[in-house]
Design brief:
The protein has 8 helices and 10 strands. The chain is an alpha+beta fold. It has one domain: q2cbj1_9rhob like domain (Jelly Rolls), CATH 2.60.120. The strands form 2 sheets. A 7-stranded antiparallel β-sheet has the order 1-8-5-10-4-3-2, covered by helices on one side. Helix 1 packs across helix 4.
Amino acid sequence: MSEEENAVSALTTGDGYFVLRNLISADTAARIREHIIGKLESGRVNGPGDINVTNLLREGPEFLSMATNPRLLAVAHALLGADAKLAAYNAKILLPESEPGMLHVDYPYWAMDPGMPVTPALMMQVIWMMNPFSAENGGTWVAPGSQTWPSRVDKDKFAEQAIQLEGAAGDAIVSHGLLWHQTAINHTEEPRVAILINFSQLAIRPMVDMGPFTEEFLEDVPPALRNLLPVDYGKSLRSRLQKNYA
């Protein structure tokens, strides 16, 4: 099977996540990591030691190309459809001795009653490692297969099943929106940085407001990115209607 077929199988009927290796080089990841750390003071505090940096689409060409990485988009389109949209795009800085995050599933599932079906998937999250993930620096906790559990998240059940994900700088973890997961503690003396991207089905409202986008901005972005942005919704919805009910 192709990489995207293996990924979709893992996300829906397997562990609920799949690691895409070497999406960018370690040198590129290190450069992006330093850029994000430079934004630390302007970031939004999610919790003790947990900082989000937003508006990444305006941070330069490397960030635009990350959102449209061909291998990443191949998985998103295979799972969510060719008209999938960019629902969120930010960076997470996990400072030394940060507190653990809240156990959760991803949007839009946390806004719905539990028991939603795994397929069709509504959301795919990307956790892109800008430095290596390990148990020491706060590799994300996940419960393999939990995307198939038709219940609210449960701390005791999660504690019994959860593992910490590891990988190299430049790798990306893609996961089903229903996968139970939790931010870990960074026990090292260096910040741990990840780029977080969410792709959704066309019918799902974006999780965050990434606009407004000026015409000048839209004219300069590549077509692959414009197709992902929450613009031209009327045109996209009409195309979907014609495809499904012609």
